[in-house]
Structure formats: C-alpha cells, structure tokens
Design goal:
Largest sheet: 5 strands, antiparallel
Strand order of the largest sheet: 4-3-2-1-5
Helix content: under 10%
Number of strands: 5
Distance between the termini: 8 Å
Length: about 70
C-alpha cells in the first residue's frame, strides 16, 4: 500500500478502490483530475454506515490514505 504522499491522485481511474481516512473503503466512480476531488461510492464506512447506500459522494483527495489491491 502506498501512502497519500506518494500517490498521484490525478491518474486514479474509475474502479480503483481506495482506503479513506477513518478506515472507510471506497471505489472511485469519477476522477475530475483536478488533484483535489474524487467522486466515490462507499463500499464500507465504519463511522457512517448509511453512506454505503447513499450513492456517489464527493471527497477531498487528501482524505485518501491508500490504494487497495
């Protein structure tokens, strides 16, 4: 797993799974390639389970901690 300091978030493609701050697991739906935002859908969210069924969410790229295999 690479940490956020070495990730090039601009190049992440839809379908890539990422580990978010707080332990949530999300899948990228869209990447506007601005280096700031990602559109994801949560696959698992320990702190806010309702977000798993909430559809697409916009997240700040610095909240991405790692790319999941």
């Amino acid at each position: 797993m690479a940490d956020n300091k070495s990730l090039n978030l601009v190049d992440l493609q839809p379908g890539v799974r990422v580990r978010m701050a707080g332990g949530a697991l999300a899948e990228i739906v869209e990447n506007p390639q601005d280096g700031f935002w990602l559109i994801v859908r949560y696959l698992d969210h320990p702190a806010e389970p309702a977000l798993v069924d909430a559809g697409e969410q916009q997240v700040f790229a610095t909240d991405v901690e790692a790319i999941e295999p």
